[in-house]
Design brief:
It contains 5 helices and 4 strands; from the N terminus they run H-E-H-E-E-H-H-H-E. With 132 residues, it is of the alpha/beta class. The strands form 2 sheets. The protein has a two-stranded parallel ribbon with strand order 1-2. The chain has a two-stranded parallel sheet with strand order 3-4. Helix 1 packs across helix 2.
Length: 132
């Protein structure tokens, strides 16, 4: 692994090299990573590559405002299922919150995806399961 002078791993470089090697053309990620995009664009250009297009989606937070993330102990799909929510119901709720348009499957949502609709919102709150 490549480490910086302060001992931290060189994440920005690794991400850019990986994106270039895989031919990634579009990147969609959370608004919390907005500030790293310019560094990654610069690194891609310095490495002689074409940087991907970036879109930053609002973070999805639970009803208490905690960020939903794989490392967080917030709401999980297991929790939602235990509350009676189906996987397709979770997908529809997230698609509606993020203004992704109609669709019952991830493939449907991707067909209608327009990254310009993600602008201006830094987070969206997921209401408790069963709430309307």
């Amino acid at each position: 692994m490549l480490r910086r002078g302060d001992g931290a791993f060189a994440y920005q470089l690794a991400v850019v090299v990986d994106d270039l090697a895989m031919g990634i053309t579009e990147v969609v990620r959370g608004h919390d990573l907005l500030t790293s995009a310019p560094r990654q664009v610069l690194l891609a250009r310095l490495l002689g590559g074409t940087p991907p297009g970036f879109a930053h989606a609002p973070l999805v937070v639970d009803h208490d405002g905690a960020r939903l993330a794989k490392r967080a102990r917030g709401m999980t799909l297991r929790d939602l299922r235990a509350d009676g929510e189906s996987p397709s119901g979770v997908l529809r709720r997230l698609a509606t919150l993020l203004d992704l348009g109609p669709g019952d499957t991830p493939a449907d949502l991707l067909r209608g995806f327009d990254r310009t609709r993600l602008r201006g919102r830094t987070s969206v709150r997921l209401p408790p399961s069963g709430a309307t």
